Amino acid sequence: MTTLDLSIVIPCYNEGKNVYLLFGMLKKTLLSLKKSYEIIYIDDGSTDDTGIFLDRIKKLDPSHVIILKMRKNFGQTAAFDAGFSHAKGRLIITLDADLQNDPADIPLLIDKLHKGYDVVCGWRYDRKDPLMKTMISRVANALRKFLTKETIHDSGCSLRVYKRECVEGLTLYGEMHRFIPAILMWKGFKIGEVKVHHHPRTYGKTKYTAKRVLKGLLDVIVVKFWMQYSSRPMHLFGTIGFVTSFLGFVIGVYLAILKFVYHATIGSRPLLLLAVLLIIIGVQFVMFGIFGDILVKTYYESRKEKNYLIEKIE
Fold first, then answer.
1. What's the distance, CA 216 to chain centroid?
2. Do 83 and 206 belong together in one domain?
3. Which of 229, 260, 289 lies at the terminal end of a domain, its last residue?
4. pLDDT tens digits for 189-232?
């Protein structure tokens, strides 16, 4: 049962001294809010002294601190998912452990949330990252906005505040933590944004790599498909199948006219193979659409979920 006002969810991977320094800054902000809270640290398979510092934090404040230790490094998305699953607060706040997010900005996000929003995201308006990382992030944000029609500026900022109902039933995998606002927007939740401070990294090394960028690109394609066609995959695959088969049929009609009207030889023409191939591929896409509809129906029935959410009943 939810009995707390705030749950702070902080994934940690090889952040060592940062987690200890962050704890002091965070406690100062939380005490000023005068709300009940818990701080959930997720040690995502750290191999440095992060675990030692987390043990010290737990001894300093055992009544408010919870430590989830992963068996290995599963990634930030998995860490957020674990934190959400264990959180008991009415509001759930997330931030990075690297000291680049400023806990002093948390009250700003909460104030914005109370103005009619379900989620409020931080916007690192003046980023203190290397130029290359910033440029890659801007390109990724532009692509995300184009595909998902989401309006926030900075999907990579982990400093966010959620109402509890936003994360209940949320399934995360891959690098999906970047697209949580887009997924929640698709579900009908109201998304807000606040400009927040961003500090240069002092200790530790960035976990942002080209491999993560590629994974994020693939995940945004999945998010786009799920947002637009998760309840009607036949509309996507059926359309592709119909267009492909129609092109094959048109080519076939053209070849038939050549054969029976102009008595041309068509057996050795590559167009004949292309026509047959297009029709076969088109039929396969239609079958994918049928199977997709069956799988979606099975998915929702097995999870006892609906593909819609009711905000309130009056």
1. 9
2. yes
3. 229
4. 999 999 999 998 887 777 666 566 667 677 777 777 877 777 78
Question: What integer is the mean pLDDT of 36-57?
Answer: 94
Whether residues 163 and 249 fall in one domain: no
* Boundary of a domain, candidates 177, 206, 229: 229
Q: Are residues 182 and 223 in contact, defined by beta-carbon separation less than 8 angstroms?
A: yes
Nearest residue to 192 (alpha-carbon basis) of 156, 169, 165, 162: 162
pTM above 0.70, yes or no: yes
Give domain status of residue 310, yes or no.
no
Distance of CA 169 to CAs 67, 184, 206, 303, Å?
A: 22, 11, 30, 10
The total of other beta-carbon atoms located within 10 Å of residue 149's CB is: 13
Residue 314 lies in a domain: no
Whole-number Å distance between alpha carbons of 42 and 12: 6
Classified as helix, coil or strand, 40 is strand
Is residue 113 pLDDT above 70, yes or no? yes
Q: What's the pLDDT band for 293 if we cut at 50, 70, 90? A: confident
Residue 159 · residue 120 · CB < 8 Å: no
Q: Are residues 41 and 117 in the same domain?
A: yes
What is the Cα 28 distance to its own chain's centre? 30
**Residue 108 CB-half CA count within 13 A:** 14
Q: What pLDDT does residue 233 have?
A: 87
| Number of domains forming the structure of the chain | 2
User: Are 86 and 137 in the same domain?
Assistant: yes
